[in-house]
Amino acid sequence: DAGVIQSPRHEVTEMGQEVTLRCKPISGHNSLFWYRQTMMRGLELLIYFNNNVPIDDSGMPEDRFSAKMPNASFSTLKIQPSEPRDSAVYFCASSLVGERDEQYFGPGTRLTVT
Amino acid sequence: DAKTTQPNSMESNEEEPVHLPCNHSTISGTDYIHWYRQLPSQGPEYVIHGLTSNVNNRMASLAIAEDRKSSTLILHRATLRDAAVYYCIFYGGATNKLIFGTGTLLAVQP
């Protein structure tokens, strides 16, 4: 398996623009997680899905952030409008709940908002 | 949220054992103890997990105190590739959320 795939790997955008981050989980996994990592706040869970259904979005910072999982093999995290404080590395992870619950992380998307 | 306490940083010499401690005094009976590590410029990577008994795998060993309020991740022979931030997390049975703390930055000297 290719592992969790994220795109783009790097994104530079101007304040006010819409940003869409994409994630393809490992085939057969039934849970998907979006995290954000900054120097100040460390690694934070934003939202997670079980069987394509959002279960807990309490970590989503504000209404500018939204996440979707239209099917088992694809998820998006959208920021609209983006702000400089959204600059961070965004990780997607997937797991098979009921097994070891081990989460497999993607390589991350480094987002810079100027 | 679940809270663990780890030293901010540790140093080791190559090919020596490393013991990374973690305190989790508020752990409940159904919480698993998970360890992840994050190498520079990469996403976190699963290392090992356990509930009550000590656990071994190809990467490391996990020693869990009898009262479960602390645990130790053991790397038997540190290599330069083991330099990373190591996170100790306890993982509740009712939710599959991982709550990452600040972790321990392990430096390995040649």
> Which pair has the most extensive contact?
A-B, 24 and 19 residues
Mean pLDDT score of chain B:
90
Structural classification of chain B:
mainly beta
- Overall pLDDT confidence of chain A: 94
Low-confidence stretches of chain B: none
> Which structural class should the secondary elements of chain A be placed in?
mainly beta
Q: Into which percentage range does the β-strand content of chain A fall?
A: over 45%
Largest sheet of chain A: 7 strands, mixed
Major β-sheet of chain B, in short?
Answer: 5 strands, mixed
**Based on DSSP secondary structure assignment, what is the total number of beta strands of chain A?**
11
Assembly level:
heterodimer
> What is the number of helices of chain B?
0
Distance between the termini of chain B: 38 Å
Net shape of chain A: globular
Rg of chain A over CA atoms, rounded to whole Å, is 13 Å
Globally, the shape of chain B reads globular
Give the proportion of residues in helices of chain B.
Answer: under 10%
- Please tally the β strands of chain B and state the result: 9
Uncertain stretches of 5 or more adjacent residues of chain A: none
